[in-house]
Amino acid sequence: MASQLLATPVQGLLQPQESITPTVLVVDDDDACVSHCGRMLDELGYKHFGATSPKEALDRICTDPNIQIVLADMDMPSMDGFVLIEEARTRLGASRCIAAILLADKITADLAMRGLHVEAVDLLCKPFGFENYSNALRRALRYLAARRAASEGSMSSFGQQLARLVEMLETRSVEASSAERISDKDVSATLRAIIASRSLRSRFFPSQLFADPAWDILLDLTRARLDGQQVSVSSVCIAASVPMSTALRWVRQMTEAGLLRRWTDPKDRRRDLIALTDATAAHMRDYLGAVHTMLNKI
Q1: Does the 23-152 domain belong in CATH 3.30.750.200?
Q2: Is 159 exposed, middle or buried (0-12, 13-18, 19+ CB in 10 A)?
Q3: All residues at 6 or more sequence positions from 185 whose CB lies less than 8 Å from its CB, including other chains
Q4: What is the DSSP letter of 228?
Q5: N-term to C-term CA, the chain
Q6: Domain 156-297 part of CATH 1.10.10.10
Q7: Handedness of CA 198, 199, 204, 209 (dihedral sign)
Q8: Which residue positions in the chain have pLDDT lower than 50?
Q9: Other CB atoms closer than 10 Å to residue 186's CB: what's the count?
Q10: 120, 134, 240, 260: which has the highest count of C-beta atoms within 10 A?
Q11: What are phi and psi of 223, to 5 degrees?
Q12: pLDDT tens column, 93-151
């Protein structure tokens, strides 16, 4: 069990009706598996569709607003289940939540970790029985309910925090002209002092008191840019010092807000890389330059 980039997000999609049980989409290039899943879904009373290719699946997801649970095979020739889920979520944006159940012939630690990164609610090993199947679907329903509750409550605060962050970064510091004259060495030293001080704080106070994942992500990616390093999404999520699912939500929202850019690693298509956009990097440099100038005046 494990608990998500290629196209422009689809806009204006209808919201699913919450009073209706979510529709299930089964995606597998094996017709026999699609039929097997369909029979069990009939017994459980779910409305469902089957697709034998990722393209067919994406077309169905984007045109049917009631599809909220996707069972995807992890070994399809053109696009595996991981990429399919991320592609679907990228196209839908914030318009609809998708609960993912992944199917595999054999479950390994690597597959489980990748499942965690796409927030899969379960990994099912073929052939799977009725009990495991129904349990996975119940977990999917709980996941969708939790995401709805989060979007109605804390995610509203989340959006406000992100909006304030974007506004802050778009408001250039009065010290920006001075920051442009500061060397990369001074900027890097200031950044490392800020990161070290945040780490030091956790020795004296519970880290939960000061959770600020967006800022930690920006600091870590600024450090990587100054050092000329490429950073994976999973690595920056660890740097955020919050649960992986929370960090992934921040990464997704910050990317959609234009603060970050995310792409598939061409050397290892199993992972995504992430970096600051040029505009965000410029704002971060101005901020660090202003901090450096202020400290020198003290």
Answers
A1: no
A2: middle
A3: none
A4: T
A5: 54
A6: yes
A7: positive
A8: 1-19, 154, 173-180
A9: 16
A10: 120
A11: -60, -45
A12: 767 889 999 998 888 887 787 787 788 888 888 888 888 899 999 999 988 888 777 65
